[in-house]
């Protein structure tokens, strides 16, 4: 029971990060029908910015803000400079371009910072609070839940309650009609990439200190888990991304705890297959048909 | 006076031009029907006017101003609204959201609210279904929504592409009646593309017949209606 409680809280904490990262994947997919395979590398780049700013100023939170901001900028730049040219091309073009971007970003980071793992500090303790002898949630877990919760709530409000959110949704669903209605669709795409990239940067900031540390490839496995989460959730559904993220976090945590940490990548694959066999569109796929 | 003037318009999709040297004009407060069979170039004509398709030659001027170089998303701010073929509503958004989207660029929020009430008054079916998603609507309701949404921009010229397509006769009559009502009460000009010749001529002031991308006939709607030879040759009734 104690072990189960520990694995559950640990799984939910990891799952919250996957949820945020999956949400970033879904945001871009909805807007452009592109899976941004470079999202992990872009998030790592933002975390390196945080690392440098924190090292220079001594403030974790300044680094945090710098990472989110550079995530925003990086997302906008990638959309404007690179992705804009493949948005209407065959899907494979975008995949190849994104993979090229991964190599580029990782090579640049490697040549600036070196290819070694750097430990990253956290602003609050990662030691679990002991409840009745069981080590449960740490202060850092609470920070993760809080941050991801705020992001999810913020995005939900943005998309459902604000004019900009309405424009972004309309641009994603019906770009041509939206232009006829006066919506600056190109601007909305850039904004979508910027937001997604900032959310990805935040997820990177939260998860990297809990793993091996900062390295140009630090988000590779997180990307795999989050992509699984996004697909499990339906790829088109923000709610699905959050639920999928938490589910993947739990499954991986249980598998690592009760079986072996070595089989967790396999477990992610099995989960993916199981869900896609039962519901090929993912758990939260919308039944509405899409006009093409 | 002429609100929209199209001169020497030639347009296509890379191969042979779909439209060749098309001239016409729409006067303020009138309905111009563009008639023609499938593939005559009617939709291409509307898409070239609103800039979704860049013409290879010719000019389109609206209210005396050349529309070349004007971005599509700015047209609605100038008073030109395009209701695309297939009732281009955003199926994933609700009726209310679709309508809000139509007036989102406007700064005069109070007037937008008043216009929203007016649209709901004009289309009571939409008022009853404002929380429903677009894909839950019937074909007629979708057409109402597309029209209502365009009206939220308070346009001076409405481009409407085949509003009767796939609609029951009663719904077609309703759509045409609303276009006539808007012209008569607000002075709205309409460029109406239609295959349903009888319905279109019943509402139009003037009409042009498009055949294989060229203007085959033009004139007052009543004259076209009475020209038996022309009707047989191009309009099939």
Structure write-up:
The complex is a heterodimer of chains A (292) and B (237). Chain A is mostly helical. Chain A has a domain at 2-115 and 133-216. Chain A has helices at residues 2-32, 39-57, 60-82, 91-113, 139-161, 163-173, 175-180, 185-207, 220-233, 238-259, 264-278, and strands at 128-131, 134-138. A two-stranded antiparallel ribbon of chain A has the order 1-2. In chain A, α2 (39-57) runs antiparallel to α3 (60-82), α2 (39-57) crosses α8 and α9 packs parallel to α11 (264-278). The N and C termini of chain A lie far apart (51 Å). By secondary structure, chain B is of the alpha/beta class. Chain B has one domain: 3-Layer(aba) Sandwich (Rossmann fold), CATH 3.40.50.300. Helices cover 40% and strands 25% of the residues of chain B. Chain B is built from ten helices and ten strands. Chain B has a six-stranded mixed β-sheet, with helices on both faces. In chain B, a hairpin with a 2-residue loop joins β4 and β5. In chain B, α3 runs parallel beside α6 (139-151). The longest helix of chain B has 18 residues, at 169-186. The radius of gyration of chain B is 17 Å and the shape is globular. The two termini of chain B are 32 Å apart. The mean pLDDT of chain B is 89. The A-B interface holds A 163, 166-167, 169-170, 173-174, 176-185, 286, 288-291 and B 50, 52, 72-77, 81-82, 84, 86, 88-93, 97, 100-102, 104-105, 133, 135, 149, 153.
